[in-house]
Design goal:
By secondary structure, the chain is an all-alpha fold. The protein has six helices and no strands.
Length: about 130
């Protein structure tokens, strides 16, 4: 059955991971590529891949400290599993972007002023 096949694939993955971490890194890279190209798959396959990714690959990336990969996997999966929520979040994030950037510039200016007053010569503040 399909579930038995999936369970066997997971078992093989775990056995391979135990012997060589490179296997899991390659699997994560492959899944990231697959998730980035979901738009070319049928809808049901998009849903299945996204669910599998959230259940197995995103937590694995997190455990390995690959946070940017984890975030991209989760964000892209949300786009296919909850398209309305994804669009709403995307709109909210982009609508406040200018205001956040203005605030950051203001804080950096204040910090640069305090540093100068304290005799600390800083060329810039980033991050």
């Amino acid at each position: 059955s399909r579930q038995e096949e999936e369970a066997e694939n997971y078992r093989k993955l775990i056995v391979a991971m135990a012997s060589d971490i490179r296997v899991i890194l390659v699997k994560l890279a492959d899944r990231l590529h697959n998730i980035r190209t979901l738009q070319h798959m049928p809808r049901q396959k998009q849903i299945n891949k996204a669910k599998e990714t959230l259940e197995l690959y995103a937590p694995l990336a997190h455990r390995l400290g690959l946070y940017r990969i984890k975030e991209e996997l989760e964000d892209t999966c949300l786009k296919y599993l909850e398209p309305k929520a994804y669009t709403e979040l995307e709109d909210k994030i982009s609508s406040g972007k200018e205001e956040r950037q203005r605030y950051i510039r203001e804080v950096i200016g204040t910090l640069m002023q305090y540093l100068a007053e304290g005799g600390i010569g800083a060329k810039s503040i980033e991050g």
